[in-house]
Amino acid sequence: MGLENIYTELIAEESRNPENRHHLASPTVTLKGRNPSCGDEITLELEVENGVVKDASFTGVGCAISQASTSMMIDLIKGESVDEAKRLSEMFLGMIKGDITDDDALEDLGDAIALKNISNLPARVKCAVLSWHTLDNALEEKKE
């Protein structure tokens, strides 16, 4: 898949998913994630109750990759257990690092597999992983 296709697909995906970009009424954890090298900045809000990510949203600014990656992540983790959210995060980060390359093994990532080829674009990797690292930190912070 060419570079333009990746960007076009991600931008289109993001523009179809504005429902993840808002403030939650009662988040139990809120954490900012920043990528100083390119200026991406997100605030992730999670509502975690009884070990389940009941709701999640984000606000912030950034490139198409960081925004699309964040939106896809939220679609994946909403309604999942904290453990499953962590597992998905590990899987996504493993895919981006190139440690997990088998598409069947990555099936659980759904649309986020579209970001797989970002691993070939070192300058964009930080954009793709920003929200996932922020999620990991937020879940660590939230440990009950």
What does this structure look like?
- Residues 7-127 form the NIF system FeS cluster assembly NifU N-terminal domain.
- One of its GO terms (biological process) is iron-sulfur cluster assembly.
- One of its GO terms (molecular function) is iron ion binding.
- Belongs to the NifU family.
- The relative contact order is 0.20.
- A three-stranded antiparallel beta sheet has the order 1-2-3, covered by helices on one side.
- It has a single domain (3-142), classed as Alpha-Beta Complex (Sufe protein. Chain: A).
- It has 144 residues and is an alpha+beta fold.
- It is built from four helices and three strands; from the N terminus they run H-E-E-E-H-H-H.
- Helix 1 (3-16) packs across helix 2 (64-77) and helix 2 packs parallel to helix 4.
Uncertain regions: pLDDT < 50 for 5+ in a row? none
The tally of strands reads 3
Q: Into which percent range does the helicity of residues fall?
A: 40-55%
Oligomeric state: single chain
Provide the structure class: alpha+beta
Task: Please count the helical segments.
Answer: 4
End-to-end gap? 43 Å
Name of the top-level CATH class:
Alpha Beta
CATH architecture name: Alpha-Beta Complex
Q: Which topology does CATH recognise?
A: Sufe protein. Chain: A
Tell me the domain tally: 1
- Principal-axis shape: globular
Sheet with most strands: 3 strands, antiparallel
